[in-house]
Amino acid sequence: MKRIATLAVIAGVAAAMFASVQASAESAQLQITGTIVPAACRLAFAGGGVIDYGSIPASSLKPTAQTTLPDKSTQLTLTCEAPALFAFKVIDERAGTAVTSLTTVPTYDAKAKFGLGALGGKNIGAYSFQIANETSDQGATTHILSMTGGANWVGSASGVAGDGSRLVAFAGSPTGTVPSPHTSVTAEMRLVTAIDKGSNLPLTQKIPLDGLSTFELVYL
Predict the structure, then answer these.
(1) Which of 35, 37, 61, 109 has most Cβ atoms within 10 angstroms of its Cβ?
(2) pLDDT at residue 37 above 80?
(3) 6 within some domain
(4) How much is the pTM?
(5) Overall number of domains in the chain
(6) Is 19 inside a domain boundary?
């Protein structure tokens, strides 16, 4: 009888353990995901984003010095669905062709000089951006630069870089020093363009200017 009682107890314990395992296995999880995003913003250029210098006679180029072309301008517009903190950066898609020894804007460093393409292994020249006449939905503003990913902001003496390392944002006033939320900003983008000296170029051929820059919106 003791043996039977002992066996009965063991069987009961085993049944309880099985029930416990079965109960713990019968479960399900529900994960909650999603992302809270800022108001959607867009960038656009007037005229479809094309700056055309037209036909430039080879005879107009200086043979032993750079030739600076007349400045060109286009309007950049940034608009958001609601006030948002944003900036933009610029990527030079022809960076390897920039002749950084040329003078565009006197205070600008090599990073602020963008490439114009190449022909026959000869780089054509360089151009730089100047930002002017900035206005926002709040009135007059000014652009500021960050070389630290938005941690610190400074003036624009060094110019917009073509490697995306400098963020451009807009302050809340013409004398502001930090970014401010905006619903819309418009700014004149002036191009200062220099062609390398004629003796460095294959002037017996047609030389197309082939600059291309990508402007990318960044939320702060």
Answers:
(1) 61
(2) no
(3) no
(4) 0.82
(5) 1
(6) no
**Using CA atoms, how far apart are residues 123 and 170, in angstroms rounded to an integer?**
34
Range of the domain at 190: 41-219
4-31 pLDDT per residue, tens: 444 444 445 555 555 555 555 788 889 8
Residue 206 in domain: yes
Length of the chain: 220
Three-state SS for the chain is CHHHHHHHHHHHHHHHHHHHHHHHHCCCCCCCCCCCCCCCEEEEEHHHCCCCCCCCCHHHCCCCCCEECCCEEEEEEEEEEEEECEEEEEEECCHHHCCCCCCCCCCCCHHHCEECCEECCEECEEEEEEEEEEEECCEECCEEEECCCCCCCECCCCCCCCECCCEEEEECCCCCCCECCEEEEEEEEEEEEEECCHHHCCCCCCCCCCCCEEEEEEEC
Q: Is 95 within the bounds of a domain?
A: yes
pLDDT in tens, 142-181: 999 999 999 999 988 889 999 999 999 999 999 999 999 9
Which of 89, 92, 121 has its CA nearest to residue 104?
A: 92
CATH code of residue 72: 2.60.40.1090
